[in-house]
Design goal:
single chain; Pnp Oxidase, Chain A; three-stranded antiparallel beta sheet; 12 strands; 41% strand
Length: 170
């Protein structure tokens, strides 16, 4: 099998190939000027358990990230399968994203979305610029209780569509 050279890979083909990797959906939230802000993000992962670090990537063109960055604090909200509409709202730029979204403040005052699968309250550890994205590393300071809601399933994105896990008998 012949390997493609880097110069022959166009962004549309790469996006298509990467859509074959199923991922969960998160909404990164923060407080800016005493009001909640946030954006949908599917590029999220664990970096380290000790110290507790996570990472996500955000496009350089994001309108929400600069105000979250300036506060140096954010919450990662892992969406449940019932929250497809929430994902859609936060994926769009502009508008009142919070009009129909229920949230509560964390102990440190950050925005936790209601009905999430789980959440992580983080401080900005570092940020790195790569291509058209920033890679953000966050230090986890607080998290949802272990039994936050074990009856929900994650919102999954695969091949450009939302998907649901199917139960299999063992």
């Amino acid at each position: 099998m012949e390997q493609s050279s880097l110069s022959s890979i166009d962004s549309r083909s790469l996006r298509y190939a990467l859509s074959r990797f199923a991922s969960g959906i998160t909404v990164i939230t923060g407080i800016a000027d005493h009001a909640p802000t946030g954006f949908t993000c599917q590029s999220f992962y664990s970096v380290s358990l000790n110290p507790p670090l996570i990472s996500f990537c955000v496009m350089k063109t994001s309108k929400s990230w600069p105000s979250i960055r300036s506060s140096r604090n954010f919450t990662v909200n892992v969406l449940s399968e019932e929250q497809q509409a929430v994902s859609d709202v936060f994926a769009k730029s502009g508008g009142d994203k919070w009009k129909h979204v229920h949230w509560v403040p964390s102990a440190s005052g950050k925005a936790i979305l209601a009905e999430t699968l789980m959440w992580l309250d983080c401080s900005l550890h570092s940020e790195h610029e790569f291509g058209d994205h920033f890679m953000v590393i966050g230090k986890v300071n607080e998290m949802s209780p272990i039994d936050w809601d074990r009856h929900r399933n994650p919102l999954i994105y695969f091949k450009g569509q939302y998907r649901q896990l199917q139960a299999h008998d063992s």
